[in-house]
Amino acid sequence: MAGGDRGSSDPAAAAAEAELRRGFETLAVARSDTSTGVYEVRLNRPAQRNALSPAAFAEIPRAMSLLDRLPTARAVVLSAAGPHFCAGIELGGPGNPLTAASSKGSDPVAAAEGLRRAILEMQDALTAIERCRKPVIAAVHGACVGGGVDVVAACDIRCCSRDATFVLKEVDMAIVADLGGLQRLPRIVGYGNAADLALTGRRITAMEAKEMGLVSRVFDSKKELDAGVAKIAKEIAEKSAWAVMGTKAVLLRSRDVTVEQGLEHVATWNAAMLRSNDLKEAIRAFLEKRKPVFSKL
């Protein structure tokens, strides 16, 4: 890990920084510019096209939890090394939890329960991206397949390069996608588009992904994607952390409830959060025609 604030006086933050520096097997986590609150989590198995291995399912929630606890982290970029973003779940590899769970013992009920628990654990690993209080921005290039689509669906903002392609391949593998895509995609692209992708297993281009709302921005190259996403993340990181985290929390809550319930939730949230020093500073800065200086977490 590059550029952590090693002098933190917060024991929990110092512990999170130390654990991030210990590194990961399947990920690379870095803060390339210590003047910003932007961290990058990079899928880092390019030789395997960043297929999601058992280690990846263990490390993604660990990384997200550490960044959630780290005060210096204000925004997270989720990217990938090599020519492709993610080839989906690694099939046939050692320690595959689905294979192991389905082969345990001779009792079919025990095997089914083991498989169910394995699926729930993998679901929870990707939900950790959504659960992270800091906004997560996906930067997708090359192929994004199966479980890779589930990963980006759990992100808050999705961007891609023009060469990116997206495909839900599970139906062609005679299985039902089970890591969150069927639950999140209808809320992102609408039921009809989600059904089209999930039932046909067809590959879509970056521009079609943009047209249906799967991604919000398309960049001409990987280099422009990296620069563009870094700019988006930096702009978010410069805003009040309390306002950003609250906005993410309210958006997620409102997605899953009625409008009336969502309005009640944000009213309760702001009953506490409108007392923040950041709000007072934002008003002062506006009146004084200067850039606000927000508090640290």
TrEMBL record:
Top-level taxon of the source organism: Eukaryota
Keyword Isomerase: yes
Entry keyword Amino-acid biosynthesis: no
Pathways involved: Lipid metabolism; fatty acid beta-oxidation
Keywords: Acetylation, Fatty acid metabolism, Isomerase, Lipid metabolism, Peroxisome
GO cellular component terms, semicolon-separated: peroxisome
Subcellular location, record wording: Peroxisome
GO biological processes: fatty acid metabolic process
GO function term, MF aspect, one: isomerase activity
Any Pfam family the entry gives: ECH_1
NCBIfam families listed in its UniProt record: PRK06142.1
Sequence similarity: Belongs to the enoyl-CoA hydratase/isomerase family.
Protein's recorded name: Uncharacterized protein
